[in-house]
Amino acid sequence: QVQLVESGGGLVQPGGSLRLSCAASRSIFSSNAVAWYRQAPGKERELVAEITLGGSASYVDSVEGRFTISRDNAKNTVYLQMNSLRPEDTAVYYCNSRENWGQGTQVTVSS
Questions:
Q1: pLDDT digit string (tens) for 50-67?
Q2: Which residue among 11, 12, 37, 101 has its CA within the 20 to 30 Å range from the CA of 86?
Q3: Is the dihedral of CA 88, 93, 97, 99 positive or negative?
Q4: CB under 8 Å, gap of 24 or more: what pairs does 65-69 form?
Q5: How many CA atoms lie within 13 Å of 108's alpha carbon, on the beta-carbon side?
C-alpha cells in the first residue's frame, strides 16, 4: 500500500500564498495521474486540480489562474502552488492518486 503525506498547509492572510506538497512512500506518480481535492466544513469534497501522466493540468474554475499543480517524479512528490488566496479557499486539502489518499493538510485563509 502506498502512503501519501501532505504538508505545507497553515494560516495565511487573504492574497497570500502557500505551497502544498504531497510525498509518496514509493514511486507511483510517474505512472498515474495525481489530483488535489479539498473539503470545507459542511461541504462535499471537491476536485481542485489534476495532472495527467503527460503533464497536462486541469483546474476547477474557482482556482483557475491562481493555483498551479506540478510533479517531480524523481522525488515522488506533487505540489500545489496556491497564490492570491481567498477566504473561500479555506479547507482541508487532500492528495489523491488512484485509490490512495493522504491524511490532509489544513489551509486557513483569514485576516
A1: 999 888 999 999 999 999
A2: 101
A3: negative
A4: 69/34, 69/36
A5: 6
